[in-house]
Structures are given as C-alpha cells and as structure tokens.
Amino acid sequence: MKFIKEDFLWGGATSAGQIEGSWDVNGKTPTLLELTPYNEKINRKEMLFSSKTKDQYLKALQSNTKNHYPKRYGIDFYNRYKEDITLFKKAGMNIYRMSISWSRIFPNGDEKEPNRAGLEFYRKVFEECLKNKMQIMVTIQHFDVPLPIMLKYGGWINKETINLYLKYVEVIMNEYKEFVTYWLPFNEIDIAIWAPELGLGIFKSDFNQETGELKQISYQGLHNQFVAQAKVIELGKKISSNFKIGCMLANSTTYSIDCNPVNVMENIKMQQISRWFYYDVMVRGEYPTYSKRFFKENNIKLDITEEELLLIKNNPVEYITFSYYMTGTVAKEEIKKVNANLHDVGKNPFLEDTEWGWQIDPIGLRITLNEIWDRYQIPIFISENGIGVVEKLDNNFTVEDDYRIKYLSEHFEQINEALSDGVEVFGYTMWTPVDVVSASTCEMSKRYGLIYVDYDDYHKGTGNRYLKKSYHWFKNFRITGEL
Ligand code: BG6
C-alpha cells in the first residue's frame, strides 16, 4: 500500500524531562520528574503514575538519597542533541516535536529576566534542526512545572501562575520565532485531571481526595490552563503571523462493551467527560452543556469570570493534536480493567495488549480521526503514537523489532484510510524516535525508539546510539512511501 499524502509531516516526539538530563546545571531548578525514583518492584500491568507526598519529594532533593532518579540523566540529550537530530534527519524525518523546559528559562518562575544559558541551549538545538531542514513543534509545558512555582505559588490552581507562564511564553516565542512554527501550550492537557501533580504542579498530599477537594481544585487548575492557552493564542498572533498554535490531549477513545443501551449511554457519558469536553472548550470555545451537569453532580464549583469565557471563545486552537496509544471499553457494571496511558480502561477481548497492558488498536486510530474530524472540521496532527517494549541489543548491535514495524505500519495504514475518508490529517510524530526514560514508570527499559540507547534503568552504559531494524524500515518507507 502506498501512503497517499506527499506533503505529510513525519517525525518524532520527545519531552525535555525524559531526554535532557543535566537536571541541575546552568541555573535549572528541579521539577517533580527529577524527584521521582525508579522502582524496580513495580507491577507493569498495574503501574500508573507514581505519587509521593510533599515531604517525600522534598527529601529527594537531598543528595545523600539511596534511590536512583532516571530523569535527572535522561539520555543525555543535553550534550548529545547533535547526534540525535542528525539521526532523525537521516531516517527521513521532516519535523521534530520537542519540549522546552520552563525551569531552564525562568528557574524560579518570577525572575525579571530569563536565564540566558537556558535560552542558548534551545537556540543551539533549533539551529541544528534548521541545519537538517526539519520543522519544529514545541510543547511549552510537558509535565514539568518548576518546583519553586509549586512551592511559592501552589502551581496552576493559583491564577498568578497564568502570568508567570505567559511571561515565559512571551520570551520563548520572541526568541525563537524564526525557528518554530508549531506550538502546543500544554502536553496532554487532560493530565490536569488524571495526574494533577504533573499537569498542574501541585502536591496531591496537600488535598483531600475523599471529600472531592482534589477533584475540585484539579478542574480549577485545568480552567486556568484553558485561560492560559487562550492567552498564548492571543499573544502568538501578535508575535508572528507564521505561528500555528494547537492543543494536545491524551486521547481516550472507548467503546461500549456491548450493544446494551445502558452501556452505550455510559460510554457516551465517558467520552463526553474524558474526551469531548476538552476539545469542545479548546476548539468550540465554550464549556459544553453536559459539563455543567457533570460539575453540578460532582459538586465542582469553579471560579470562572465572564472575561475569561470571552477570551476562550475568541481564541480557539487552529488544529488538534493528540497522543494515541490504545483504546478501552466502558460498561455500567464493573468489568475487567487494564492499564492505559494516565488511567485504566475496560478490557477489550478483541485486542492484544503490551507488557504494560496498553491495548493495541490501529483501527481505533481511524475511528478516532474520523470522529474528531466529523465533530470539529479542523486539521489534525497525531503528536504521539508508539509501542514500549523491553529490548536488548543483539550480537550485531541492533534490535530486530519486527513488532514495532508491524505496530507502526498498521497505524500508518489506518492514517492512510482516514485520509481517503477525507479527514484532514497533516502530520505524525512517533513516540519516540530514540529510546527515552518512561514518563509513568521511570524505566529506561520501556523502549519506544527506532534508535536504541545504551543505558539501563540505573543509567549504566555508554549512552551510545544504535539503529534498530525499525529505523531502516522507517527510512525506506520515507523514500518509497510503501507500507
Ligand atoms: C504520554 C506522554 O502520556 O505518553 C509521554 O506525553 C510519555 O511523556 C508517553 O512518555 C508514553 O508513556 P510512558 O509512561 O510509557 O513513558
């Protein structure tokens, strides 16, 4: 099968906190990512984002700790970015989605002037991308609120954080306007609800989960991010007419477990609250009617002003992006659950899952693209998709990852089908072009890359890069267009 769209953007996606390392150099302050240890006793089928108390996180700042913190080291992209970007280019990628670490630019959030060393680092990375003729998509916040903003301001539940964030955005947009076209204000904005610690920069242990307090403040933080995103769009339009600003969601497509109307209705409600709600606010610019019922029934009372609602209405996103790893099922009664990205979902007997329980569903991608297109009719970009597998280098210094080739080609075929259905999809960045530290489990051994990185879970190894079989497959696909 030949891929039908020639001017499609093909690339890879990463995040600063999972690749850069150098967590405490040149002025950078920590984030929770670097205060979360690797735990070799995790149950991969049950593992969700780990959570610590505020005291445990702060204790992790002490250097005499006995735990290992993989995100402090990442894959040493901070020093090896040239090598990685060159390999991405050689694979035939024409776009690189990456994130900027807020804590390198405004380490405390409220300084008057940005940290020049941080700005210089990203300038060098962007120059390298430009040299390799790759477009850039920047995620402005990817799970990494600077710790000082958490401690002093309480993260995103404080509206003052909107101003700190806007100051940061204004600096990077002005600084990099000749390099970057595509901007995503927040990675997986729905993480504010699924894992508020990372999305909002709050300590969960500060809030009561039983009384609904945590849910209440999470939706408030999310609202503040909707406002911030609208302000970024307003600002971006003034800085450069070339900017294209979109949204990013951990897309959670689910199916009713069967055709029992009770379950079908349950799934509709689930889809409204865990998927459409976010797109509706960010694309249509309004809180949907069903969300008002949801807030009422859950006793969620938000501090929302008329001015904020107008801002959101007047500044919708230009395109939609999402991460797509799996689908799930929903029923009214309790059903068997499996692990998924950020939360668990019902098991689907027709799908296979990975070692982490993530259910592989290429056709679900076509379904998702069609549903989103039918509802919003704005361009779509798949900003994350891929498969994490435990892998070892073989004697030929490669990995025969036929399962990854199968996974990617089946998903690409479904994008092709969606394009034939008339859906306007304009690009795809795989998670990930190169192995990185896992966001949820801090494992290095959950490998997604086309390129193998020689580090283990304890950062032991040379850090050298080796090409897997899928790297050559992808390169060939980019030359021939053949799937
Ligand atoms: C997405 C994130 O949730 O899924 C990435 O945007 C993350 O940061 C990816 O790495 C895969 O999840 P994990 O937990 O397997 O690394």
Overall mean confidence score, pLDDT: 96
Largest sheet: 8 strands, parallel, barrel
Strand order in the largest sheet: 1-2-3-4-5-7-11-12
- Stated plainly, the CATH topology is called TIM Barrel
- The CATH H-level superfamily is Glycosidases
The counted number of beta strands is 14
User: Which spans have pLDDT < 50 for at least 5 consecutive residues?
Assistant: none
Shape: globular
Number of helices: 16
How many domains? The number is 1
C-alpha-based Rg, rounded: 21 Å
How far is it from the N-terminal to the C-terminal residue, by CA? Answer: 5 Å
Which structural category fits the helices and strands?
A: alpha/beta
CATH architectural grouping? Alpha-Beta Barrel
* Helix and strand run: EHHHEHHEHHEHHHEEHHHEEEEHEHEEEH
Q: Which kinds of small molecule does this entry bind, naming each only once?
A: 6-O-phosphono-beta-D-glucopyranose
Strand residue content: 5-15%
The portion of residues assigned to helices is 25-40%
How would you explain this protein's 3D organization?
It is a single chain. With 483 residues, the chain is α/β, with parallel strands linked by helices. The protein has one domain (9-333, 362-480): Glycosidases (TIM Barrel), CATH 3.20.20.80. It is built from 16 helices and 14 strands. It has helices at 16-19, 54-59, 77-90, 102-105, 116-131, 147-153, 160-175, 191-194, 196-200, 213-239, 261-284, 289-297, 306-314, 362-376, 402-420, 469-480, and strands spanning 9-13, 95-99, 135-141, 182-186, 244-250, 253-256, 319-323, 327-330, 337-339, 344-346, 380-384, 425-430, 451-453, 465-467. The strands form four sheets. An eight-stranded parallel beta barrel has the order 1-2-3-4-5-7-11-12, surrounded by five helices. The longest helix is centred in the middle third of the chain and has 27 residues, at 213-239. The radius of gyration is 21 Å and the shape is globular. The termini are close together. The structure holds 6-O-phosphono-beta-D-glucopyranose. 6-O-phosphono-beta-D-glucopyranose binds at residues 15, 18, 187-188, 250, 323, 341, 384, 388, 431, 438-441, 446.
